[in-house]
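Hey,
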Amino acid sequence: MRRMFRVLSALTVAWLAVVAVPANAFSQEETPPQILITNVNVFDGKTNGLTTGQHVLVEDNLIKEIGDDVRAGDDAIVIEGNGRTLMPGLIDGHAHVMINHNFPVVETNMDLTDLAYRATLVMKRFLVDGFTSVRDMGGPAFGLQRNIDAGVIAGPRMYPSGAFISQTSGHGDFRERGDPGFSINTPGDLSNFERMGIGMVADGVPQVLAATRLNLRNGATQIKIMGGGGGSSRFDPIDTTQYSVEETCAIVEAAADWGTYVSAHTFNDRAVGRLLDCGVKAFDHGFFISEATMQRIAAEGGFVVPQMWGISPDLARNPLMPADKIPLVQQLGEQFKDFGRNLLKNGVKVVFSADYVGAFSDAERARRYEIWWRTQTFDSNSEVLKQLTSTAGERLALSGPRNPYKDGPLGVIEEGAYADLLLVDGNPLEDITVIGGTTEWFDADPEFKLIPTIHLVMKDGKIYRNEIDGRLSPEALTFEDYNYQGIIGDYVPAN
């Protein structure tokens, strides 16, 4: 009996050892899952043309081999490209996925559960539009990122900043006139934006250090600060410079201590100069800077991340635009119409941004319009595609040890890179509409519709959308996952 018990115990231990092995673990004799994509024309994210007649082998979550004679294992899934274009997954360099309704609604009639639930839909729609990475530039998106990475929610890779950091009176000070705020000593002087972790108002070196360190503690991959005024804020004029030298440098030093960088909302030369003096590396918006400032950004290895629709003549057609602001919008659009061309002329690295914020329909239509409009302001599909892929991936890598995705580069098709891939019908170097670019903006249908020329979306070696042969990874999205009809700009939660 004792001998039988010992045998059974040994078998039990052995069985437990087997079932304890993770599902994605392989023995030395086993081969990780392989997907072979055949007969495609490759845009690698860096060059200005396509490499024709290629086969691309994906093994597990990385690109293993590229060439015109690539062999896969007998168990590999083979997807026939039939001359379609294979390109890197798209990257949005500036989004606010947790600010997913118009500001007054968020401030007065939403809590974190409203925003979080809506954010899951935002991320699914990003993914089926071909965006496999998103840099979130203000909002409590840490839990969203964790659940995407864990496979609980489908969505792009996320690079969260956490709450954007603003001085009192700055671009992140969202208190209304009726809120407390007439004394710096008023207790409970917080907007709903602050209570929910969308932004933090911090003044003086001790407070800005605490705010920066709190975001890093929570998992920020980079830090976002408000370095100047803005067009959407009520109380800070767009020409203002925000945060002192001491405050700015303290934030940059605290981020550098964690091996990462600071990105700043800013528009003008004075603000950018101060930010550069302190070592800021990325500048969001920046429309009104001079060519001399552009040259300094380029020389110091910085990036500019503009949403170019901000100087589009079509902006005046925005039904939300106050009538008294339309003449100024038109004037600035004409005055700075060469902003994009000047950035390139002066060697600045530019990253795509649609500044996703607000109601679904407004933000999604702006994103697709932005893809097309950039081809007009940068005069080149290839440049815009690089901004959407390799240049954006290079900027994501600035997060250094805080980068959650270290297995390979993003935004490129090369051996060893992450298998974040799109297969599209047509050549985006010649026709930007094949990845969703459109001349329509506010006049576009507000209901979400799939981009019909995107035939396959892969992220991390998993297939989330497949219009070719229907084979999908278990994590793949269904129509019902992202097509909730009626959840558009006029949706407001009930009181």
